[in-house]
Amino acid sequence: MNLKLFNVKEYTLRKGKTFLNILCNLALIIVLVTTMLFVAANNSTASYAAGTCDIVSFSGTYTYDRMLADVQALSATYPDVVRYEFKGQTALGRQILIIKLGNPEAPRQILVHASIHGREYYVTPLVMKMAEYYAAYEKDLLATTCFTIVPMANPDGVAIAQSGAMATTDVNYQFLINSIGNCDIWKSNANGVDINRNFPIGWGLAETKNPTNSYAFYEGITPSSEVETVILEQLLLENNYDCYIAYHMRGNIIYYYAPTCSPEVYSVSRLIADTVHNSTGYQVVVDFEDTEPNGSFADFAQIFCGIPGCTVECGKTLPPDGAGQVSDFYSKNLSSWKNVANLYISKVTY
Ligand SMILES: [Zn+2]
Questions:
Q1: Closest by alpha carbon to 134, among 340, 322, 347, 344?
Q2: What cofactor is this protein dependent on (predicted)?
Q3: Which of 124, 150, 152, 203 is the most exposed place for a label (fewest CB within 10 A)?
Q4: Centroid of ligand 1 to alpha carbon of 27 (angstroms)
């Protein structure tokens, strides 16, 4: 059996199946999910010690510049498994960092992103530290699984949440940021667009919205109007990812349901969410009353691209409160990447 079958590009309902095809696929799903649940039940839930990893630190404010220094150090220390590149340029001139953790040609490919919402920036050091640990101690896994990591998907938003209008020297943007205000709870990018409302599937349908540029909940003038959105879209469209994990704050909960996604994507997304739950203890939640997509990353990934995955909401409080939370995030989440990869390793024959 080949878990790649779950890729909707190969068998989406939109392509017009026969009834017999649907029955066969349902039988396949039942067999796969039953077997994978057995694997999930046997996942490691052990916490890992930080070991000798000493590059990524949780102390102080984790800025874009710290992230750049850390990825350079990680690549220099672990050149066989840590590679990186930059894509695009934000309104305030920051490039989006893309890390390849593992063998880029590995048969299993997993997309991870964090800090698509500026104020949730504690999850950036979380995924950076997890990358460091895996580079140091999970070489065998990284031979067969590659994690594409976007540790700060919205760097301008993070900078605004961390330092307000000081995030830029551009007086026009300083004026815009100051006129909007709410910098300490800023979710959007520098244009005041909420990236997680700017994707084209269900764009404009969110119930909670702001009609114009705002610290949160403004979907933009058109779908995919923002460079941060386009970069994530391109990654999804140009790479045959097995699944994704998106890191947000807050709630200690896991979402996995994108309304109108295919049954296949739904089933595997639930399995991935349950696997992350086994590692973290975070509650898996689903809101079936949410009947329409709303322009989120998850909607684009699951509904349009047919890539399953889950959204992990770490923690109870937003920055700058509760800085000590990151160590807790780390101990809870560290094993989850391996456990999700093992779902595929156990099932896939290439
Ligand atoms: Zn968020």
A1: 340
A2: Zn(2+)
A3: 203
A4: 36
